[in-house]
Design a protein that fits this description.
By secondary structure, this protein is mainly alpha-helical. Helices cover 55% and strands 4% of the residues. The chain has 2 domains: 82 residues, DNA polymerase, domain 1, CATH 1.10.150; 179 residues, Orthogonal Bundle (hpI Integrase, Chain A), CATH 1.10.443.10. The longest helix is centred in the last third of the chain and has 22 residues.
Length: 305
């Protein structure tokens, strides 16, 4: 079965992003190239042994477990679809276990640093400063993805109901509530924008630059790095870190896990539960430092009762 048929299925039926389709194309083409160097076996006739050899070769060449898992996922999807349409009779990936990957906790910014970001940092004067602040406040205040932020229109924001409509992955729509401060900020931004450009239509992009052009993905990434650099020296300073920060701070303040799942637009709880590890680690450190038997507390003097 041609690879393109499967990729079309991903793009038009599964509605996967262009980035995902491109990544799967690279992985499948790479596996086909491996097969051509090992007897020229067609991908439809590849065996589980050949797939395991490919995975071993990738890891010997320095490919990390997560990348190998993604490539294996691309093959699983291909063979599952090929079997569904009758091109193969079995799935050679069915009995292959993915390589173990070390747990990587999501990086987030501490709450006190986020307070410094919004209360102490200097923002540029004029419309650019207003836009920059709205970008940071919306990302942190809603936990939405960068692509979701850039896809927002003026009509998606409902200031009267203090909510914003977000179109997430696979065109799944969700409603995210807005805090009072964010509502006031957006109201001021929209009023300033209307006064500057004269028009404000529901279908227009919510966020624009000083020439009323939609914000570019790269420019948003750069401005997030710039402002986060003013309050933290951590390695990761991206829009997605603000999404992690949103989720972590909610859970630290006692938010229900299912509620956080809905706010983030996760399909299942497993993706949300990773944030609980951050809060557990924080509690563990507090316990270790403060409890007499925590390991890091202040020891009692011998003569103290």
């Amino acid at each position: 079965m041609p690879i393109d048929r499967y990729l079309d299925h991903l793009a038009y039926e599964k509605r996967c992003s262009a980035h995902t389709v491109l990544a799967y194309r690279r992985d499948l083409v790479q596996f086909v190239a491996f097969l051509s160097g090992h007897g020229g076996v067609p991908i439809e006739r590849a065996t589980d042994r050949m797939i395991r050899l490919w995975m071993m070769q990738l890891m010997e060449q320095g490919t990390g477990p997560r990348s190998v898992n993604r490539k294996l996922s691309a093959l699983r999807g291909y063979y599952r679809f090929a079997k569904l349409v009758g091109e193969v009779t079995s799935e050679p990936t069915a009995l292959i276990d993915p390589p173990k990957t070390p747990k990587r906790l999501p990086e987030f910014v501490e709450e006190v640093r986020m307070e410094r970001l919004f209360e102490e940092l200097k923002w540029p004067e004029g419309f650019k400063g207003d836009t920059d602040r709205v970008v940071l406040e919306v990302l942190y205040g809603t936990g939405m993805r960068l692509a979701e932020l850039l896809g927002l229109t003026v009509g998606d924001v409902d200031l009267e109901r203090s909510a914003v409509r977000v179109l997430g992955k696979r065109n799944k729509e969700r409603i995210i509530p807005l805090g009072d401060r964010l509502v006031d900020l957006l109201a001021g931004y929209l009023a300033t924008r209307k006064g500057r450009f004269g028009t404000l239509e529901p279908r227009q992009p919510l966020l624009v630059d000083e020439k009323e052009k939609p914000l570019a993905r790269r420019s948003v990434q750069r401005l997030v790095v710039h402002y986060l650099s003013g309050v933290t020296s951590q390695h990761k300073r991206s829009p997605h870190v603000l999404r992690h920060t949103f989720a972590t701070h909610l859970l630290e303040h006692g938010a229900d896990l299912n509620a956080v799942k809905e706010l983030l637009g996760h399909a299942g709880l497993a993706a949300t539960q990773v944030y609980t590890h951050n809060t557990v680690e924080k509690l563990r450190k507090v316990h270790a430092q403060a409890h007499p038997r925590g390991g890091g507390g202040v020891p009692m003097k011998p003569n103290e009762p």
